[in-house]
Amino acid sequence: MLFLLLDPIFRLNDGSNSPDADVATVDGRRSAYSMLLTKGLIRVGIGIPDNAEFELIGVDDPYHFASAGELSLFRRPLPSTNLKFLSTVMWDGRETFAEKTIHFDLSHQANGATQGHAQAPNPLTDAQQERIVNFETGLFTAQLYDHKAKSLIGGGANGGPESLSSQHFYLGIMIFSGIASHTSLLIRSFLTFSTDGWDCAAVVLTMHGPLWHEAKNYSIPSYLESVRSPVSTTSHRSAAH
Ligand code: HEM
Question: Residue 207 and residue 79: Cα distance in Å, rounded?
Answer without folding.
Answer: 9
